[in-house]
Specification:
Layout lengths: L3 E4 L2 E6 L4 E5 L3 E12 L5 H4 L9 H13 L5 E12 L5 E8 L4 E3 L4 E5 L3 E6 L5 H11 L4 E6 L1 E8 L3 E6 L5 E4 L4 E14 L3 H4 L8 E14 L6
Antiparallel strand pairs: 1-2, 2-5, 3-5, 3-8, 4-5, 6-11, 7-10, 7-14, 8-11, 9-10, 12-15, 13-15, 14-15
Length: 231
């Protein structure tokens, strides 16, 4: 049941009995066949039914509660049955990422469009990814204090302004520095740290606005959009 791009802004999911997908609420464009939709609860019950491998961990429940209070939560809907469901959101570009089970995908909630229900999802605080520096990173870059992580085998569709490009982090490029507004997601064993490149122009308020950057190190892939626009 892999997700399939229809064009650069629409993705299709083909459902069969016993399978489901989780998608951003309001992103369903149209469907064919016998399909019904269920709100995805905090505990992940809607996503967990077919196969029992999707849901939110106990720590993730606390994380989602915090996200809802901070305004970072994006409501999800589960689709199940038999047919084809087509998704898109606000005319944004869609990128499909295949997970093989060996690596974890980290993505902001507002970038996540749809993923197969067999994937395990959890919501974690950035403080668990660098302590105070993680919290500072989220606050200073506008990414918030929580992020979403997906693991397992399956497809994920993410959103971007103007399309996304995949950059490899590893031996040939041990460090990739990304504008926080252009960051979409990353896959693999990548450490994300905040990097400040402040000169006198930034100090007097005449800088380019690129003084705060995200420094990516390790081994994996980071997706960057062709725009600095947040949504």
């Amino acid at each position: 049941m892999p997700l399939e791009l229809v064009n650069s802004k629409v993705v299709k999911s083909t459902l069969a009995p016993g399978q489901n997908v989780l998608a951003r609420k309001g992103s369903m464009l149209y469907y064919t066949g016998d399909v019904h939709f269920i709100p995805h609860s905090m505990g992940g019950s809607a996503g967990a039914a077919p196969g029992g491998r999707s849901g939110v961990t106990v720590g993730g429940v606390a994380g989602m509660a915090g996200r809802m209070m901070s305004g970072e939560h994006v409501a999800m809907m589960a689709a199940e049955g038999q047919g084809e469901v087509f998704y898109g959101h606000a005319g944004l570009y869609v990128e499909v990422i295949e997970l093989d089970g060996s690596s974890m995908l980290t993505v902001e909630a507002d970038r996540l469009l749809v993923h197969e229900g067999y994937l395990q999802s959890s919501i974690v605080a950035l403080t668990s990814q660098g302590g105070v520096r993680g919290a500072v990173r989220g606050a200073m870059t506008g990414q918030g204090l929580f992020t979403t992580q997906l693991t397992g085998q399956g497809s994920v569709a993410v959103l971007s302004h103007g399309g996304a490009i995949a950059l490899q982090v590893g031996p040939e490029h041990p460090q990739v520095v990304v504008d926080p507004q252009a960051y979409v997601c990353h896959l693999g064993n990548i450490t994300v740290d905040i990097s400040a490149n402040v000169g006198w122009r930034e100090a007097v308020g005449r800088g380019s606005g690129e003084a705060i950057q995200l420094k990516m190190t390790g081994v994996g892939t980071v997706w960057v959009q062709a725009s600095e626009q947040k949504f």
